[in-house]
Amino acid sequence: MATIWFLMALIALPGFPAVSYKGYYAYFTKEACEVQRVPLENFIADVEIKRGHNTFYIETYCLEMDAFQDQLDNYKKNKQRGIGLGGQQIGV
After folding, report:
1. What is the pLDDT of residue 73?
2. What is the mean pLDDT of residues 43-55?
3. pTM of the prediction?
4. Angle at the Cα of 11 (from 67 to 89), degrees rounded to 5?
5. Cβ contacts of residue 66 below 8 Å, gap of 6+?
6. pLDDT score, position 82
7. What does the pLDDT look like over 54-91, one tens digit per residue?
């Protein structure tokens, strides 16, 4: 098993029955994940404002997670070949 850091965002909007959540990217180091937290929060804020939600709350987290080594090996192999991940991304 290999450790990755998964960047996740929680969003609370008034009038919505539950907190929304979405996973965004996985990184090989905690530091790489932490660097992306603020830009992600800014991106989500821009999207929500464009949707007309002027009041909302965003919190992001870097969650430590184990991944199987073959998943990471396949990612690296496909990245070298220029093959996308179908909307999913592991940041480097």
Report:
1. 83
2. 93
3. 0.73
4. 35
5. 1, 2, 3, 4
6. 66
7. 899 999 999 999 988 888 888 778 777 765 544 444 44
Helix (H, G, I), strand (E, B) or coil at 80: helix
Tokens of 55: 């009041």
AA identity, residue 54: N
Give CA–CA dist 47/31, Å, rounded: 25
Say how far apart CA 12 and CA 53 lie, in whole Å.
11
Q: Are 62 and 30 in contact (CB under 8 A)?
A: yes
Compute the distance between CA of residue 36 and CA of residue 55 in angstroms, rounded to an integer.
Answer: 23
Looking at the DSSP assignment, which residues form a beta bridge with residue 5? 27, 64
What token pair was written down for 27? 């990184």
